[in-house]
Sequence to fold (365 residues):
Amino acid sequence: MKASIFLRALGLAGAVGAFAATPVSAADFYKGKTINLMVSSGAGGGYDLYARILGRHIDRHIPGRPNIVAQNMPGAGGMKLLNFAYKVAKQDGTVMFTLHQNLPMFQRMGARGVKYDARKIQGVGRLSAGNELLLASKASGIKSYKDLYEKEIIVGSTGASSNSTVYPYLARNMLGLKFKVISGYKSGTEVQLAMERGELQGMGSWSLGSMYASGPQYLKAGAMVPLVQFGPKREAEWPNAPTVMELDKTAQDKAALEVVVQGPEIGRSYWVGPGVPASRVKILRTAFNAMIKDAKFRSEFKRQRMLERFATGEEMEAVIKAIFAAPQSSIDRLRATMTKAGGGRCQDYSKSNVCRKKKKKKKKN
Fold:
């Protein structure tokens, strides 16, 4: 009798142990969970608005229907968030984030402050993309990019690694267009408002997708002056503004700019960290792909006048691979251009061993 009781108890314990050891299925994982959707810019701009429409709709397509909570973490041109997502955030699929499009290039250049490897983050999908535009306000008196060979305009920047710094520096130091960059703004929205106040004479970067979402009034003819586009070909909305590829002066510059124009392809895309299990990445990708076909999502997307340029997570990862496949000579040319006299500091765009150390002045006796 005692033996049978012992065996039954042992069997029950074994069953309980086996049950406890059974992992939660990927499909059940998200039930009762919250996904933090982290945005690499301040509120109100393109990164923010596209992320929030994603957050309002993707939950319906994730098994277990988790809560989606948007959280802004601006700073260092998006690098603050990417470092956090890569090194600190949970790697279980409960943190999804936006990616500032020049950060893979910055890693490739060996820029200061990089604590991530963009080749290892995992793409979920992209809602929008488009060329980045350098533009002047109507009040600036500028009529076209040709005026900037003689006249300087002031634009605002959100950080050394931001589009609003990179593009004006490249346009000035590689193409000879006279942009002066003022840093310290917290978001693209702040830069836009500063331009409207007359504090700035233009913007060093505004993507077509963001303009559709946060400044559609600027799409009207005459609302501003389109100057130069960063992208592979001209957008239909800005037919008279050339791309940088049309203005490059040498084959070396062309090769370097081909790396840069990959950035806008990243657009308003969404990612998870390198340690998230493949089964959960698949759930999020499947949910994203279902969401962009969903009638309710598409209705709001159209109502909000957003720019549709959907892409899969796999396609986004391919863009990053292309950036890292660029020849070293192109990267060296970009670094030299960014740190040319009047541009950025070498230590912002290069590893310290690349930069020349300033000689200390000897004290006079």
Residues 83 and 115 are 5 Å apart (CA to CA). Residues 1-22 have pLDDT under 50 and may be disordered. The two ends are 101 Å apart (CA to CA). The first strand starts at residue 34 and ends at 39.
